[in-house]
Amino acid sequence: MKKVHLWSQKIISNADYGECQDCRKQRTAVSWCKNCDIAFLKENFHNWTSENPNIDEFIRHTQLNANESMDYLEWIDFDQFELIENINKRGAFSSIYSAIWMEGPRWNLDEEAEVWTRNGPIKVILKRLDNSQNISQEFVNQDDVSFVVPIFFSVIQQFIHGGVIILNNSALRRLNGEIYYTKFLFEDSYENSIIPLYRYHKCLQSGTLTDCFGMTKDSTSCYMFVIRYYKNGNLYSYLDETMGILCWKDIVEMLWSISAGLNFIHEYNLIHGHLHGGNILVENELDSIDAKITDTGLHGHANGKISQNYGVIPFVAPEIFDGNTPTKESDIYSFGMIMWMLSACVRPYCDRPHDSQLIQEICSGTRPNIVDGTPPVFSSLMLKCLDANPSIRPTASQLYEWLGNWVTAICDDPEQSDLSDQFDVAEEIKFANLDKLKFNITPCHENAIYFSRPLDSIGVYY
Questions:
Q1: Is 451 helix (H, G, I), strand (E, B) or coil?
Q2: For 76, phi and psi rounded to 5 degrees?
Q3: Spatial contact of 98 and 112, defined as CB atoms under 8 Å apart
């Protein structure tokens, strides 16, 4: 029987992957020849089309510049999907389906033949952008440099899929402001835009962000984005599934994973702008738990303008309610609210309407109460993230470093420390009250809304 391994390779600098047996050139990744694989992909160009020349060109660009197996995007024919099912999860401007991709990605390594082969049937998520067949020209003709720019999430691998990023003015100039959605991408300046956009595509390849295999188009001509399926769903559904029972070790590990993704985004001078529990996907393995950043909602209608802020009220920083543009600091506020949600194992402000009254209270300094038994070091960091003054909040880099130290102290270091003692005590308190936690899940108020919506429609600017 042939030995087959699941794809998990990452390029290691200066590693010797051996010589390709076909072209005799040096391989650049495990059992992968850049020269031969790119030639194969290029020969296949005529066998597929999205019926949109800009989408085709960008997908081809990712393939021609691949550095390892599956380091590119694919156009996947819609007939490749079976058992398509609406899973009743809807973002502000998109619908979510599960499906079986019959061929699957090239994830399997056939050691005998030394080639990467298709995985076979694999469950995926299809994210359908509603009304994407009717994208208005007005949508792409925005001239305000501070507006939210949809970064063609359908063709950026392992990116903040389904969402938007906010670019600062210099980034907008560098990209000519032409990072538009779907068929209006590069409308005026394609040649000047594809290289910097591809640079973003390569920069944002990170195991801390979710996997995107490519894109497809359904029978109504709406574009759909083919994304890795995470069996535990998003953070909201995971908390529901666990009935509010999470150990502190898992909480810290998840936060470290999330901080890694956020730090990666911020290092490239990008902003998520829409971080909340619905945009964190969870994978619970036997020996660890992982959480990856995604983005399950757009900040504007595909056939309308995007000159306003959108968000999920509990996760929106107070300065955004005053009409300011999202920043790295507002991302950190959202992270702080995710910290609180994990410590409490419930959604923030779930027992009350998410209305203008709540917004006014948030702007006046209201924050959720710290849960009894929370480690002091955890509470201190969380409150800094939730500070009304953006300059007080830590950076994503600091979060990643500090949380990494926590993981080491809690999980790896055999020596006791004040840090590990705090979490040990918190663990004892939590599990002493296990029955109370299990049967005291707070139901959500019918007007507690956890999907993105336009903030000015709630009367937030005052």
A1: coil
A2: -115, 120
A3: no
**Domain boundaries in the chain?**
53-108+116-228, 235-458
Query: 72 with 211: CB under 8 angstroms?
Result: no
Token pair for residue 457? 């429609």
Distance CA 77, CA 56 (A): 13
At 437, the amino acid letter reads: L
First to last CA, the chain: 69
Residue 115, beta-bridge partner list: 110
pLDDT in tens, 52-104: 776 787 788 888 888 777 778 889 999 999 999 988 665 545 678 899 999 98
CB atoms within 10 A of CB 200: 19
What's the whole-model pTM score?
0.73
CB 158 within 8 A of CB 204: yes
Task: Collect all residues with Cβ–Cβ distance below 8 Å to 304 and sequence separation of at least 6.
Answer: 136, 138, 139
* DSSP-H helix ranges across 285-395: 318-321, 328-344, 356-363, 376-385
* CATH fold of 235-458: Transferase(Phosphotransferase); domain 1 (1.10.510)
Closest listed residue to residue 318, CA positions, set 121, 68, 327: 327
Domain range 53-108+116-228, CATH architecture? 2-Layer Sandwich (3.30)
Three-state secondary structure call for residue 66: coil
- How far is the C-alpha of 334 from the C-alpha of 321, rounded, in Å? 13
